[in-house]
Amino acid sequence: CIKGIKKPACRQAGIMNIVEVIPIAKGVHRETLSYFTGKDVLPGCLVTVTLRGKSVPALVISVKKALLSKGDIKTSSFKLKKIDGIRADKFISPSFVKAAEKTAEYFASGIGGVLRTLIPKALDGWTLKIHEEEIAKPPPGIKTIKEKLLVQADEEERFSTYKSIIREEFAQKKSVFLCLPEIFEIEKYVKLIEKGIQEYTFVLHGGLGAKEIISRWNKILEEKHPVLIIGTGLFMSIQRNDLGTIVLDRESSQSYKTLTRPFIDIRKFSEFLAEETGVRLIFGDMALRAETIFRKEKGEFAEFSPLKFRSLGTAASKVIDMIKPDGEYQVIHNEIKELIRESKEKSEHLFVLVNRRGASSLTVCSDCGNIQSCNRCKAPLVLHKKEGVNSFICHKCGNKYEAKDRCVVCWGSKFKMLGIGIEQIIEEIEKLSPDIRIFRLDSDTAKTHKKCSQIVEKFYAWPGSVLVGTAKAIVYLDKKVENVAIVAVDGMLAIPDFRMNERIFNMLLRLRRLASKNFFIQTRKSDNKIFEYAAKGDLVNFYREEIADRQLLGYPPISLLIKISLRGKIHVLKKEVENLAEILKEWSPETFPAFIPMVKGLYRMNILLKLPYEKWVDRKLLDVLLSLPPQVEIKVDPEDIL
Questions:
Q1: Below-50 pLDDT ranges, the chain
Q2: SS3 423
Q3: Contact 269, 233 (CB under 8 A)
Q4: CB neighbours of 116 closer than 8 A, spacing ≥ 6?
Q5: Is-contact 353 554, C-beta < 8 A?
Q6: Which residues lie below 8 Å from residue 622, measured CB to CB, with a gap of 6+?
Q7: Residue 201: what pLDDT?
Q8: How far is residue 317's CA from residue 338's CA, in Å, rounded to a whole number?
């Protein structure tokens, strides 16, 4: 207590606080732990506790009066340890903790796991500053309601809008958090937006070292002037009391969903955080998700400015039908071959998109129809060619196999290669123009962020060159490319994923906007309207058709999906799935094998639940889901149902 200030009554009486904390440490499987203290602590405080003989940081999430003395606690039947000390009084705000609790409930996860996901690991063990500047608060009893708004426009217009928002917020003495899904996008867009406010612009992402993160974190909290923070969703935990707006750009990106437990969506968390903190939330993209447009029509979102449903572009766009009347098979259409020649002759750049790594995505025995698959996980093997040697690689588990001359089932020797891979396309381009400079960018050749950047930089610096890449390359193409050709995307349509059309459309739309002269799509599925819509930049008809299809099948945004995945030995797994389906029968479960039914020797099966959005969170169902053992994987609003 501060000298001269009377001690609280609870301390005078020796009353203790029972404090529930989440240790910020690896290998702690329990959600929360309880300790006691005679000190005054609040939810959001950072304390130190003894765990397994070591002193570790822990976040306070709740405090209750014990109505017992320290002596009573020590002699009670339950064993509690004392908190070692308080490290930061305002490490995380109660509003942030509340938003994390809502997120945990929505995604059927534990609050501990969610908070560990949302608080950067780099903060462990460091002393942090506290932002003490207060902002004007509404009179007691009056609750501020901030809007959730949408911006749908091409990149240049969106970021012009964001600049205006930042200027307006700075004038009101408010800070802004601009959230982006990828590190490279942060590094790219900071150059577009920081001009004139460099000294008040701060970048935070997981690619920075721990010391640099802490240094920037403390500078942000010490700065008296409003700031612009550009970062990934992980850094929304930073506490600026003057935050006025959260802008979440590239709203359609899959990267906003976590790949490991707990399976949460940063977009949903940002909604909860905006509600709890009373700040304005803006979602932006060239093409927002169908779910978001649907929610706007229901009144859950409003337009910040009129949404653009026609994406403009300077390139001549064309959809090329690869099915020829005479049945002739071509890997690359003659029109694209001509584009390759012209690009080289005119010293123009050409980006060629291929969906698959390797030479071909499927190898089928012509005699018995057997698909060459992985012994370990049963996924189709992908043929790779390296230095004249053929080998099969499983892209699911990474196993490698010798490319044998005979089928393992019927011993036949006639194989048919199906699907087009990046190696096959490069081979075709080399045949067409042996002296052309070809760059390649996929997960086999560029495993790091730095390597991807270097490949793209060399491509831009070499006039008349070709970059052949998978979708991974798109985010790194930060300047216009004269010519863009999509030569192998049909394989994506074969994946039974209800969001696949939307993913392909968004990808094609970005590439169309990237091209300055020519934009060609070759396909054997030209009857699929998404190619026509992408070539024209027609968002209206795409949304209309996409939402109609989902209504027919009861998929989001019509219903909320919950996918429950189990794995194990086949005879045991089937029994477990049957038992769980019986427990969940009230919610009409559907059971089916996973798209790739076996991984690392274990079979996989899914249970799918469909609920009206307004019925979630269902407390009864949530209790069932939270009671399931850790090996059961639960995804609320999954990215796919494969």
A1: 1-13, 134-143, 358-360
A2: helix
A3: yes
A4: 22, 24
A5: no
A6: 105, 108
A7: 97
A8: 15
In angstroms, rounded to a whole number, what is the distance separating the alpha carbons of residues 412 and 415? 8
Beta bridge partners, 429, equal none
112, 32 contact by CB (below 8 A): yes
Quote the pLDDT of residue 116: 82
pLDDT at 601: 82
Residues with Cβ < 8 Å from 302, sequence gap 6 or more?
147, 148, 149, 150, 296
Q: Which two tokens stand for residue 627?
A: 């009671």
Residues 6+ positions from 591 with CB-CB distance below 8 Å: 577, 581, 605, 606, 607, 608
Measured over the CA atoms of residue 552, residue 555, residue 556 and residue 558, the dihedral's sign is: positive
Report CA torsion sign: 617, 621, 625, 627.
Answer: positive
How far apart (Å, rounded) are the C-alpha atoms in residues 203 and 221? 13
Half-sphere exposure of 31 (CA within 13 A, CB side): 13
- Report DSSP letters for 453-520, one per residue: HHHHHHHHHSTT-EEEE-GGGGGG--S-EEEEEEEE-HHHHTS--TTHHHHHHHHHHHHHHHEEEEEE
Show Cβ contacts of residue 501 under 8 Å, excluding neighbours closer than 6 positions: 493, 528, 530, 546, 549
Strand partners, 382: 393
Contact in structure between 559 and 551 (CB atoms under 8 Å) = no
Output b/e per residue, 525-558; b: 16+ Cβ within 10 A.
ebeeebbbbbbbbbbeebbeebbeebeeeebbbb
Q: DSSP labels for 124-173?
A: TT------------PPTTPPP---EEEEES-HHHHHHHHHHHHHHHHHTT
The full length of the chain comes to 642
Phi, psi of 350 (to 5 degrees): -135, 125
Query: Cα separation of 7 and 13, whole Å?
Result: 10
Round to the nearest angstrom and report the end-to-end CA distance of the chain.
58
Q: Give the C-alpha distances (Å, rounded to integers) separating 258 from 33, 117, 336, 639.
A: 25, 9, 38, 10
Write the pLDDT tens digit of every residue in 1-39: 333 333 443 444 456 888 888 887 655 656 678 898 888
pLDDT at 135: 43
Q: How far is CA 345 from CA 415, 458, 543, in A?
A: 38, 19, 40
Which residues, other chains included, contact 452 with Cβ-Cβ below 8 Å and sequence gap of 6+?
A: 184, 441, 446, 472, 473, 476
- DSSP per-residue string spanning 31-81: S-EEEEESS---TT-EEEEEETTEEEEEEEEEEEE--S-HHHHHHSSS--E
**pLDDT tens track for 59-90:** 888 888 876 555 555 555 556 788 888 877 77
Query: Between β-strands 201-204 and 228-231, what pairing exists: parallel, antiparallel or unpaired?
Result: parallel
pLDDT of residue 111: 82
Residues 6+ apart with CB under 8 A from 635: 107, 263, 562, 563, 564, 565
Q: The tokens of 209 are what?
A: 């070292």
CB-CB contact of 407 with 365 (8 Å): yes
Q: Phi, psi at residue 303, to the nearest 5°?
A: -85, 130
The candidate with the shortest Cα–Cα distance to 60, out of 80, 78, 79, 87, is 87
Q: Could you give the 3-state DSSP secondary structure of residue 365? A: strand
Cα torsion through 492, 497, 499, 505, rounded to 10: 20
Residue for token digits 């059971």? 591
pTM score: 0.84
Confidence at residue 604, expressed as pLDDT on a 0 to 100 scale: 94
Query: Is residue 301 within 8 Å of 283, Cβ to Cβ?
Result: yes
Q: Residue 9: its pLDDT value, please?
A: 39
3-state secondary structure of 385: strand
